[in-house]
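Section 5.1 Outputs to date
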Amino acid sequence: MKISVVVPAYNEEQYLPACLQSLKEQDYSGDWEIIVVDNASTDATSQIARDFGVKVVSCPRKGVVFARQAGVEAAQGDIIVQADADALFPAKWLSRLVQRLTEQRGVVAVAGDIRYIKPPIWADLYSRLWRLLKKTVYIFWKRPSIIYASNMAYWKEAFVRIGGYNFALPGIGDEADFISRLRKVGKVDYASDIVIFVSSRRLQGRLCQYVFADVFYYTVLCNLLYNLTGKSIANERVDIRLGIESGLRLQPRWVFAVLIPVVLAMVAISVYGYFSPGTQVFGKVYSKETPSGKANLLEGGYAKVIALSFDDGPNEPYTSQVLDILKRYDVKATFFVLGKNVEYYPDVSRRIVDEGHILGNHTYDHKVTTPLLNWDRQLDLTQEIITRITGVKPRLFRAPFGQKTPWELDGIHKKGFVTIAWSISANDPHASSSDTIAQRIIVKARPGGIILLHDGYETKHGANRSRTVASLPYIIENLQAQGYTLVTIPQLLDIPGYFE
């Protein structure tokens, strides 16, 4: 099996050397080749490619799909890998991309992701939102909504079966239209963790032009009109290095009429998915169990079970007081602890486990930025601390503030964790009295629910949780009087609480 990496290039003498050097440093040990397609360059692009000892193909017809097509036709590989001349490729990029494609039956293509090198602030925020949207779509529909043509691998046989690239869309025919046709012959996989680094030159000082012209007009409208009518609204995409060469000019009133509702809808979905603890917009989250749950089915009908959980501990003396009350009523609960607090209170952490309660991972220090930036480091560090001090390896995870991102949930689930939210909360850290806390819990209680209380307050040692402690006996007695059985979250969901 041979691999062909195709790199279309137009006047890329500034970026091509670094690109080819990063490709030469790939750790892939199989048979592979690099093909640079000179797309009518007027600079030293072609000579630079030859100096690197790679295959050079000439394509005088300008347009990225023409260049990519010429590269594929000259390729000897069974697998074609798309790249761009202004990108840098990590050493394991090619081997990971090829492995992802070849190890899955029925997959005809794999698309990775990109990160911009030193992008302007707006572009960084835009790309984060775009990645969030793509991951959300993939989680629910198991296919990418769109791809970056600069980071993709596909079987040449599938390429031939769909007739190659779409010449009616010379600027975007290697992206949405391409994967749409590939999906007719097999599955297109999305590997968000296979990342390359791309120049941000096309973004500098071009916010309006990029969003309205490049993305909306030349990508969305052009692709939409082609699918509806079979005709393209533009002969060629605008190249920022050449100015406007051809194609229709942007009509702002149509752009704003359609783009604004789309953007607002994307923002609304993203905000809701991020801030709503129990929503499953971004992936599987348990906030309660349904009557069909195994743990809730008893002979003769549906059992009234409810789970009690505590966040932000351990925190003395309040965690010990909570444990004393639970022991008095013979109730087991689930404690989502912070790694930093476990280090500070190791004895009470061990007591939680010794008395039959369940420990869950709640990150190291409860930072609001965790879902966006460093969830994996926070998760792994806390897991190591809990295991070292208590001897158990929690399988349950609860995000700080219940906030989450698609990439965080996806990564957490790949590690084997189960994400837990809640359906019943008294907002006890900010409640005015123990009676208020108790009443809020009792009024909201429903069979299969997960109750959220706090024995700590983030990483503030000794944070006053006396009102929560005082409300706990009343909550337990009232729920038991209503016929509820208080259980741990693993009992409620019928799942293991720890890794073996």
